[in-house]
Amino acid sequence: MIAARSFKGRSVALFGLGGSGLATARALVAGGAQLTAFDDNPRSVEAAAAEGIATGDLHALDWRAVDALILSPGVPLTHPKPHWAAELAKSAGVPVIGDIEIFSRERAALSPQAPFVAITGTNGKSTTTALIAHALRACGRDTQLGGNIGVPVLTLDPPLQGRFHVVECSSYQIDLAPSLRPSVGLLLNLSPDHLDRHGSMENYAAIKERLVAASDVAVIGVDDAHCRAVAGRLEAAGRRVVRISRETPLEEGVFFDGADVVRRGQAGETRFALSGIGSLRGRHNGQNAAAAVATLTACGLSDAEIRAGLTSFPGLVHRMEQVGRRGPVLFINDSKATNADAAAPALASFMRIRWIAGGLPKEGGIASLEPFFPRIAKAYLIGEAAPLFAATLGERIPYEISATLDVAVRSAARDADEAGGEEVVLLSPACASFDQFRNFEVRGEAFRQAVAGLAGIELFAKG
């Protein structure tokens, strides 16, 4: 745990007692803050109080005496309407911050030169974060992995000279972290997302830009106009910028040429082969790998260490995760693909697919995935979206209404065996999970269990 000693003796309000909020409350208590914590869910308040965390209705506070409001990242700060706790704080002139800001302050106090890699972007954040942390650990670096990837940052070991913190940051977290200053900041890409929370694409992009704006080294993907503009602004301001691309060969920077990651600059050209690395299939992973190469180079790793990290990367659980193989049939868990855009990279990565799709449908359905339909040998449709997806597939693609995930796995495995060739049974639902599963992680585990129940299966280790 990182004790929040920068708040020792200070009056702090905290709203949001979910996973990261509760971890933040513990860190504040450990650091000696005078804390009052609250949540709109009475059960969360009761659970915190049972741990000895001081709780109370924040409406009753004397906000003139409060030094900071710590807001969980899932709680609206500005749009569509500020949460009432944020409004109370702002009306009293109280700063509103989050756990990444507390981490940044503790790093500044404990070890300001401790290596800190922060990653953001619309797509690919989690895979890139996991890949960078894996490569650092594989070559023996003391590495802490956390943030939006599912491990609250304040549960990690404290900043220390030579200890790397690799932290995935959402736009919500960046918005609550005004002193965020990574050693290496990475902005992968920008496309419309979370606009209900940020009001406009311009606001969303400006928040993401903050992560790289104060970085010692800014690694920026330049395949979209917003990121190209960010790179240009920072370079004009005298910042050190490393450009990356999955589409365009760069005279200076790191790019994916369809087969290799290429690092090019004044020292010449160096190639990092991705062929044969199953966990880094697809052009989208070409960008993730390019981002990792640029970041790891900035962190001081040798080319041999970088290659070893890429080659041994097991992949991110629930994101194009290789679960097992039965003969020529590969089983892939892409449960994290909760909308059509997220499912597209997996569909683009394989040539003959038994596609398990469905769940709680998102707006737009799967119409945008039509260019990949020729790759689909058959679809196995589950959950509430099954009739909608069947209507979209029509007579072009064979499908069956499997209804449940276990039935879909058995049917897809049977049909793949009968076909007798190289095929992929792919769970890439293009839907939320909430009609049948608590979250996409539980759905992915259910897929693994269903695959494990097949006769003759060779299961792979989890990433």
TrEMBL record:
Enzyme class, UniProt record, top EC level: ligase
EC number of the protein: 6.3.2.9
InterPro entries: Mur-like_cat_sf, Mur_ligase_C_dom_sf, Mur_ligase_cen, MurD
Pfam families: Mur_ligase_M
Biological function: Cell wall formation. Catalyzes the addition of glutamate to the nucleotide precursor UDP-N-acetylmuramoyl-L-alanine (UMA).
HAMAP family according to UniProt: MurD (MF_00639)
Listed name of the protein: UDP-N-acetylmuramoylalanine--D-glutamate ligase
Organism: Aureimonas populi
Upper taxonomic lineage: Bacteria, Pseudomonadati, Pseudomonadota, Alphaproteobacteria, Hyphomicrobiales
